[in-house]
Amino acid sequence: MNGPEDSSRCTSVLRSTSKSWAKKSDALFCAISTSLPLLRGVSVSRQAFLLINTATVSGIVGLARGDEVLAQASLQLATASNTVVAAVDRVLVEARCTLDDVRSIVLVKGPGTFTGSRVGASIAKAIAYATPCSLVSVTTLEAVAWSGFLTSTPNVTGGPVWALLDARRHEFYVQEFAVRGGAVVSQADAVCMGPGAFDAVRDVGGLAVCAFSPAAVPESQRPQEYENVAWSFNEYPSCAGILAASAGACNEDPFTLEPLYLRSTEELFDHPKAAL
Predict the structure, then answer these.
(1) Domain Gcp-like spans what residues (predicted)?
(2) Cα separation, 167 vs 193, whole angstroms
(3) Which entry of 14, 47, 69, 221 is 20 to 30 Å from 62 by CA?
(4) Model-wide pTM > 0.85
């Protein structure tokens, strides 16, 4: 897509689709084509992985090759929608790569913040559509579990691993995993629970990886000494965790991939209707 005619077409499409542009194929292409500059770099033979997480209050964009993180940039929820593309630009420059070097995009698709999840998904889908690279996704809880597991001490890696995420309104997203052959494997589907989530974790024990601070835990549920749970707080998806969680993931269609919500849209915006 080059020249004034294509630029005009992009502008026209983006204006006509407004906030629904992420669902339009033309606008997907235009958004990324007009937002990311052409970057000079050294080819790594299309072996790089572009990692994107905007689903949590502390997000991250990174570039990896194999299990090595080449570059990364942190994101904060308040400014994520305005800085993701710039962060992608920045990590590509730092790693001396271009989008042509990206083999696959790994998206953390949620659950998490409504706007953040949609921003990350829209940008990942746009890049995948506009460039010849694959798109895979992992859930936020998978990425949290892996991130905590990779940084945990050896004495807590043999038991269950729990991933917890603040769902707001005194609720938490929670999922149980197990460690098998050095890999973190899901034991049950993710659910949204009230403060009883902490009792559920204590009933089983293990490593609890929490993508929030201790202040988010209800006072009656805060960790005590000599528990059978190793609590780890402020553990947000890391580049290494996202990459590990994506091992074996199937390719996604950029036209059909949607963010993952464990609540309906009405619940997210405090309009009580039956869950979808």
Answers:
(1) 82-184
(2) 9
(3) 14
(4) no
Intra-chain end-to-end CA distance of the chain, in Å: 39
Which CATH architecture fits 141-232? 2-Layer Sandwich (3.30)
Residue 96 in 3-state DSSP? coil
* 3-139+239-265 against 141-232: fold identical: yes
- The pLDDT value given to residue 29: 47
Domain ranges of the chain: 3-139+239-265, 141-232
Dist. CA 175–CA 113, nearest whole Å: 17
Please give the Cα distance from 151 to 147 (Å, whole number): 7
Find out whether 59 and 79 touch, Cβ atoms under 8 Å.
no
Residue 12's pLDDT band, with cuts at 50, 70 and 90, is very low
Most confident of 29-33, 96-100, 272-276: 96-100
Cβ proximity of 32 and 1 under 8 Å: no
Three-state SS at 247: coil
Report pLDDT for 158: 67
Please return the burial class of 222, using the count of CB atoms within 10 Å of its CB with bins 0-12, 13-18 and 19+.
exposed
In angstroms, the CA 144 to CA 161 distance is 10
The CATH number given to 3-139+239-265 is 3.30.420.40
Helix (H, G, I), strand (E, B) or coil at 36: coil
Q: CA-CA distance, 252 to 258, in Å (whole number)?
A: 10
Pairing of strands 134-138, 161-168: unpaired
Q: What is the pLDDT of residues 223-270, one digit of tens each?
A: 887 789 999 999 999 999 999 999 999 999 999 999 999 875 445 445
Phi, psi (rounded to 5 degrees) for 175: -150, 140
Amino acid 54 reads T
Report yes or no: 136 and 251 within 8 Å, Cβ to Cβ. Answer: yes
